[in-house]
Amino acid sequence: xxxxxxxxxxxxxxxxxxxxxxxxxxxxxxxxxxxxxxxxxxxxxxxxxxxxxxxxxxxxxxxxxxxxxxxxxxxxxxxxxxxxxxxxxxxxxxxxxxxxxxxxxxxxxxxxxxxxxxxxxxxxxxxxxxxxxxxxxxxxxxxxxxxxxxxxxxxxxxxxxxxxxxxxxxxxxxxxxxxxxxxxxxxxxxxxxxxxxxxxxxxxxxxxxxxxx
Length: 213
Prior knowledge:
Order of helices and strands: HEEHEEEEEEEEEEEHE
Largest sheet: 8 strands, antiparallel
Low-confidence stretches: 1-9, 11-20, 207-213
Number of helices: 3
């Protein structure tokens, strides 16, 4: 098999070029409901703000910028995309081997069709760089609304190896905001809402009378 044919086979998986028993099954999940990225905390701004900074600092989020005058806290997350993003399922069939796994899975290796009679050994690596603005608004003297808006940047690299041919790599990137979606090759990716809900859970105390918008 030539490198050109192998390249075409790799592209077929994630861009729809060519054919073969290797494709993406779209997700049946629904995007988070409108307003699920906001919470009303029955506490004054100063109390909510002063508690949020150390709580966020103790979490897995990285604090990038703090602007109390604007009520904006910017944080980021780099790591496993499968936890926060749904891109459907990759389905592969070759001979008697069938493989299914989340398209947003950070690392995966499998054997699938190459576009010819030989099998291809595939390796996938997906990364997520997420940034979030956490906005604190004074509603009343004893109430604060906290709203989170995230920006997701996904990168997926797939390397295919057939026999003694040189490995062929393809790379795709997609970016979208909270409540949005974007194509990552043949996959349609969207946030599952956990990034936003986990940030709100860190800020909102369990004992507080909180309600979503």
